[in-house]
Design a protein that fits this description.
Elements lengths: L2 E2 L10 E2 L2 H9 L17 H22 L4 E9 L5 H17 L5 E6 L12 E7 L2 H9 L1 H11 L2 E9 L5
Antiparallel strand pairs: 1-2, 3-5, 3-6, 4-5
Helix pairs in contact: 3-5
Amino acid sequence: MKFRCSNPRLGKYKYFCNDIDRRRTASNQSGRFSLRTGLPAIAPSFTVNKTLQQESQRRGKKKMEGSRPVVKHILLAKFKDDISSERKEQLIRDYANLVSLIEPMKAFQWGTNVSAENLDQGFTHVFESTFESVEGVAEYVAHPAHVEYATEFLACLDKVIVIDYKPTVV
């Protein structure tokens, strides 16, 4: 089944089996076959690669010019062995709820360690909060809702590391 590609930069080469094939074909250096289906690629990859690279550079410049400053607050955690799964889930829900309670906190994400490198030093969970400024992080840390939550959360942890940083756009 073919779908029409909504990307006008690709000109007459606008039919792909799906969006995944389009992206994989665009990155296929041989330019002959789709990595997913093994069928002949519709557009030569060097043409698509060059177009995508130019678009990526254009977007990168736009992001750097018009983006707001961002600060990431990263917390690595290892829960105590006696903390139940249900308790962990509740703590994570409560952490996520801080976004609605503390104005400077703009976003929250979390996940569990999936690294195969065995360099995790026992840390099992990663929590990432996004702020617009270092002052926003300071306001978040001092906020009563955070102080109350942090007291409860830290009591359930065996190990913790917290790092704040400003991402660099390359």
